[in-house]
Amino acid sequence: MARSEFRWNKKRKHYAYIHKDDGNKRINIIISSKPHVIRKGNVAIRNVPLYRHPNAKKNGQFYVIPRNYADDQHSFDNKIYKWEWDINDKRKIKRIKKNRRVKNIKLK
Predict the structure, then answer these.
(1) Is 74 helix (H, G, I), strand (E, B) or coil?
(2) Is the pLDDT of residue 108 over 70?
(3) Which residues of 57-91 are buried (b: 16+ CB within 10 A; e: fewer)?
(4) What is the CA radius of gyration of the chain?
(5) Which pLDDT does position 101 carry in this prediction?
(6) How far apart, in whole angstroms, are the C-alpha atoms of residue 54 and residue 105?
(7) Over the chain, what is the mean pLDDT?
(8) How far, in Å, are 18, 28, 83, 108 from residue 93 at the CA level?
(9) pLDDT tens digits for 54-67?
(10) Pairwise CA distance, residues 9 & 77, whole Å
(11) N or C, where is the chain less crowded by C-beta within 10 Å?
(12) 47-104 pLDDT, tens per residue?
């Protein structure tokens, strides 16, 4: 089932955009303030820069981690935020939802 809402992800300690239900799981995309994420094996994933944070009151550079996470429904806060993607960011989010390939970089 489709869903479109922003909530706090208690497990990952970031705001998340929930876009799909999968049984007891929620498929979500994490919003971050860092330009890359370091994974196991010293592989860094470049985060996708956003034109503007979905919360219009926030200033600064924000990113989206280009990966869909499946977290339990209890991992999210009860409060739903009334945020919206900027028109320039909607296409980026759509590509992440469809699991398009993203280049990884090796750190030394």
Answers:
(1) helix
(2) no
(3) eeeeebbbbbeebebeeebbeeeeeebebeeebee
(4) 14
(5) 59
(6) 27
(7) 90
(8) 11, 11, 14, 30
(9) 999 999 999 999 99
(10) 7
(11) C
(12) 999 999 999 999 999 999 999 999 999 999 999 999 999 999 999 999 999 987 555 5
Report yes or no: 73 and 41 within 8 Å, Cβ to Cβ: no
Cα–Cα distance list, 21 to 16, 37, 65 (Å): 14, 25, 19
Using pLDDT thresholds of 50, 70 and 90, give the confidence band for residue 40: confident
Token look-up 């935020």 returns 81
12 within 8 A of 3, measured Cβ to Cβ: no
Residue 35 near residue 47, CB atoms below 8 Å: yes
